[in-house]
Amino acid sequence: MEKSTDASASIFGWQFQISASIYLMIKYFGRFERLKVESKKEDIEIELENGKKIYAQAKSKQNPLNDSTNHSTKLQKALKTLSNKNKDDAEKLYYVNNLEPDPLNSTRNEFDGLTILDYSELSNESKEKIDAQLSSLKIDDFQKDKFTILRIPYYGNDQDQRQKQIDKKIAQFLISIDYSENYSKNLLDIWQTEFFHNATIPNNEVYIEKNNIIWSLVIIKLKNENKIQEYKKEFGVSEEQFFDAIDKYEKFINYKEGNFQIFNNISHLFEEYSKQNSNKLIFDFINENTDKIFNIIFDKSIDGADIVEITCSKIIARLILLRKSMIKKIIEGANNYGD
Length: 339
Prior knowledge:
Blueprint: H1 7-27, E1 32-37, E2 44-48, E3 53-59, H2 71-82, E4 90-97, E5 115-118, H3 124-136, E6 147-151, H4 159-162, H5 164-176, H6 184-199, E7 208-209, H7 210-223, H8 239-257, H9 260-276, H10 282-288, H11 290-298, H12 307-322, H13 324-335
Parallel strand pairs: 3-4, 4-6
Antiparallel strand pairs: 1-2, 1-7, 2-3, 5-6
Helix pairs in contact: 1-5, 1-6, 2-3, 5-6, 6-7, 7-13, 8-12, 10-12, 11-12
């Protein structure tokens, strides 16, 4: 990010960089594996499943509508960093900005609203602007075929106005995976916090992992759905014992049913059981594997456990399995989204 003595401008720059990171993550969601904000090489670094990377420089102005000065300086700084050596693994080199009305000041009206243009799609005037900057930097081997300009309208004192393009991108993403767009604000808040934290970690090996991003989708869904807490005699306990478990372990149940590792372990155990017992139901699985389920959830042996603890583990297992198809649908939809 560009340095400034104006603290509000500096904070704005961080906010724009994080918003740009979220936008690019969603754009490549189906193929990205992990990302780093403020990496050793670039403002944004996204690692794809094919081993290639998306590198991006994010440059912004707090009040871009007021003037168009310094556009050339920002472009030059972006090109200088993006042209650094050791980028053979690059799939794309992005210059992300919020500069109005034209980030290149080329007098051509090719940037309107949110715009993504490859170098090859730019007007001759815009290409000349970029070429002139590369020439002044004495860079003759820049990978123009990988260079893309992403202009995101991002300005205004009102936070909702500033972030509306990012909100829109998240909403499109959620709708595509059959997930309510009403959760877009929740997700934006969660992701902004996580991305900001990642940006402040100097260790370049600390990435934001895709699995954790997907699981945040699952957690929000679980928190906003009604709990399935009705008593069933198939639990093998009395109604009083069932509700004792609910009362005593409510927070524990909420936490454990949303744990990624527990979900995976219970699901795997159930899948293996179903291969040998295709005609049996969820309660058959739970009651025949009570000790294994208890061990997964409490991370200890069932020996010595009281009936309320055991009931708690059964409740969690049932919640996970009843929602397994919903969770699987979210994960598969997210993994198939994007460029």
